[in-house]
């Protein structure tokens, strides 16, 4: 007993979370600034926090709640989905964040021998959710080299020729790590392809409010579509752990099966967190979009920091909180570059390999106030100038 061979193969064969590796870098080089983790710099709305402070004495906060979420929060979410997202036929389950929502969905929809589809660069936690639940046949489709949009032609061919048909296709919109937005007609085409093939489409809308330059986020609905949402970034609620699933009401049995999974993982999302979500939601979408627009200057400062790589190398930033950049061809080991930038220049990025793309890096522009971001950007620019002109000098 007590040996590695006794640990589950599912978990042993799951990637190591990139954030765990990144945290090691911060322990080694504590003066580094982070352009790594996908977080925002703001806190939840003051009014909502004050309300929750009073609620902490309520006995109900210390009890279990309904598995699917507080009725008043679910009602508010149904209204929000209806009014803002134009999702009119969806049921809601509140989860402990969007990551737990995704695991719930994988456990509810996929068997271990099913194949599933994602697009590179993919969201690493979704990839790991498949692996750790035993869904190891993960087909990774290409993104368009210019736009990084999922390649719908590839998807169509792949769903036609793969037998048995893949069970589920997932996209993140706008993307992590790409920071690109999938335009509504392309999303609709992906949905139509999935519907024709008899395959689920799971859309992660964690960054629905994080849209720039006049773009507008659109959701789509269907009896083969599951939408996932999160309170984490929108309301600065990362540590409170609240997300939700909007799933098709008309699919018989979906709610019952989803409840089995929910009852065995969190039972319910923390009640106090759900209360904070409810009172944050009352602030309305403008509260969020006002915070989000403050990130535009960070994005611009960081685009400039990436300029030593050449303008063609810089993608993303249309939505979410990410830029995605190609390193010069000879730097295929992106993690080595990330370690060097941390050690030599005091700035931390996410290596592209964690999203299935060697030779790239992800830069997050959400976590720092403008002034700190300028500092980080200065370090990054200096580092990249050196990388391009002299290489990774010791
Ligand atoms: C695309 C995407 N989905 C889900 C999550 C996780 O969100 P949550 O904190 O709600 O679990 C993140 C966080 O970075 C994300 O980028």
Automatic annotation (TrEMBL):
InterPro entries xref list: Aminotransferase_I/II_large (IPR004839), AspAT/PAT-like (IPR050596), NHTrfase_class1_PyrdxlP-BS (IPR004838), PyrdxlP-dep_Trfase (IPR015424), PyrdxlP-dep_Trfase_major (IPR015421)
A Pfam family of this chain: Aminotran_1_2
Alphabetic keyword roster: Aminotransferase, Pyridoxal phosphate, Transferase
Positions of the Aminotransferase class I/classII large domain: 31-379
GO biological process: amino acid metabolic process
Molecular function terms, GO-annotated: pyridoxal phosphate binding; transaminase activity
Required cofactor(s): pyridoxal 5'-phosphate
Similarity annotation: Belongs to the class-I pyridoxal-phosphate-dependent aminotransferase family.
PANTHER family on file: AMINOTRANSFERASE CLASS I_CLASSII DOMAIN-CONTAINING PROTEIN, ASPARTATE AMINOTRANSFERASE
Entry protein name: Pyridoxal phosphate transferases superfamily protein
Organism listed in the record: Perilla frutescens var. hirtella (Perilla citriodora)
Lineage: Eukaryota, Viridiplantae, Streptophyta, Embryophyta, Tracheophyta
